[in-house]
Sequence to fold (324 residues):
Amino acid sequence: MTGPRVRRRRRRPLALVYHPDGSEAYARLITVPRGADVTIQVCATEEEAAAHIGDAEVLYCWKLPPALYGKAGRLRWLQAMGAGVEWALVPDLRRRVLVTRAPGVFGPWMSEYVIGWCAWVTQRMETYRAAQRERRWRDDVLPERLRGRTLTLVGIGDIGGEIARVARAVGLHVVGVSRSGRRVPHVDRVHRVWNLHRALSAADFVVVVAPLTPATRGLIDARALAAMRPAAWLLNVGRGPVVDEAALIEALRTRRIAGAILDVFDTEPLPAEHPLWRLDNVVITPHIAGPSTPEEIAPIFNANLARWLTGQPLLHLVDRRQGY
Ligand code: OXD
Fold:
C-alpha cells in the first residue's frame, strides 16, 4: 500500500545580487512581481557571495569573482549589470546558464563621451585652456569642424549604432567595421573585418567599441595602427586588450598617429608607473565612458525577472559562442 502522495515543494528560488562597489543600490530597485516567490540575497563582499552562490538560481551582478562560478551549481540565469560580458563567459560558467545583457543603456553615455572628446580635439580646447592660464590671446589658432570628417567605428552593435547616430547628427561621415558587414542605420559604409585596414585608413577618428572575444583580442595591432592617418586619433571605449597596448604606445611615441583618448586598458586601474601616463598625446579616463547606474539597469532586470518567474523567454540573450 502506498501512503498519500507527498507533493515536493519546489525550493524557493534565490536571486543573488552582487556588485563589488555597492550591491545595495542595485537591490533596492528590484521589483518582485506581486505574488512571486523569490528570495533576493544582497551580497556586498566576495565572502558573502561565496556563502550563497551554491543556492542561487539567478545572478544579477557585475564582475563576480571568477572562482565563484564553479560553485554556482544551481545557477540558471545571469543578468550582467555592465556593457561587456566577457568577464562572465568563463569556462566554469555552466553551458546551461543563460546570460543576458543591458542594451540601450550604454550607447547614449558613450556617444556623448565620443563626440565630446572628438570636439575636444577639433575645438582645440587644450590649447585655449593652456593659453588662458598664461593670459595669452591665441587668435593664431583656429578650431576645426567635425562636420565632414570621418569617424570609423570598430564594432557597430547596440553601442556603436548609437554612437553612429549621434556622430551623423553632427555631420560626421560614419564608417563601420563588423564581422557580418551588414548594413546598419546611420553608418554610411560598412566594411567586413577583413577590410579593417581600409576602414581605418579613411578615418580622422577611430572608435574602438567591439566586445572582447578571442577574435577581437589584439585586433588593433601594429599593422592596423600603421594603416591609420598620421593626423588621426584613436578612441578606445570598448576593452583594453582589443588594442595591442605596446604597439599603441609605439605609434603614439613616434607620432605615427596624432593621439589617443583611452577609457579602457589591459590592466585597470592603470598602474601609476605605466608609460601611457607620460605621453602628452594621450588622454586617460578611468573607465567611465559608459557608467552602469542602478536606475538604468533595474528596468531591464525587473522585466526579465518577471519573465523568468513566469517561464517566459528572457530578453537580450548573449550568444555565448560569439561572446556578446
Ligand atoms: C563595461 C561597463 O562593461 O563599464 O565596461 O559597463
